[in-house]
Amino acid sequence: MASTNAPLRLAVLLSGQGRGSTLQAFLDAAAAGRLPAQVAVVLSTTPGTPAIARARAAGVPALELEVHDVPDGEALDARLLEALAPFQPDLICLTGFMRRLGSRFCQTYRWRILNSHPALIPAFCGKGMYGHHVHEAVLAYGVKVSGCTIHFVNEEYDAGPVVTQRCVPVCEDDTPATLAARILPEEHQAYVEAIRLFAEGRLRVVGRRVEVLGAK
User: Fold this and answer.
1) Catalytic residue among 117, 135, 151, 188, which?
2) I need a labelling partner for 116 at 20 to 30 A (CA). Which of 21, 131, 140, 165 fits?
């Protein structure tokens, strides 16, 4: 997958009230030369998010798409595809994107959509498992480790092939907020790593597995 001399063109999709810390991690890694990619566009399905302000401050095209009354599936896919088409993204990166992508969008960008999840898939994932809900479930269950997962996206919630995962300990005095704060830096690093591997053409999907090929 991917691997050309030109920087990989990223489209970052988000919704809710995302702060844009993951977007900032992409921008910082690209500026430091640690990521052979550029953020070509940021698209939010919620107006006025801090992430949109970050994008505009960095000179990145930022789109606010009013789709609260558009159902998930074919209708949402059509709006998203139309908005992204002029930017010709090589890779779609979901960062707190709460809408469910349909088959048309997934087929158009098959194995070119990445998502991050703040737990170790297949545990604590699926519909309704996002943000603080994940960390609350982790603590309620009493597991000793949690972490983050970067995975390719398919038509089901959190069900695409796993690219990379990182673990963190769950401490006895953790709250959802402290656990989230411990996971977030690992999530940023794992996401940047996954994009870099994609840009270098080193990811190959074989069934449910993602093979990481040797450096060229």
Assistant:
1) 117
2) 140
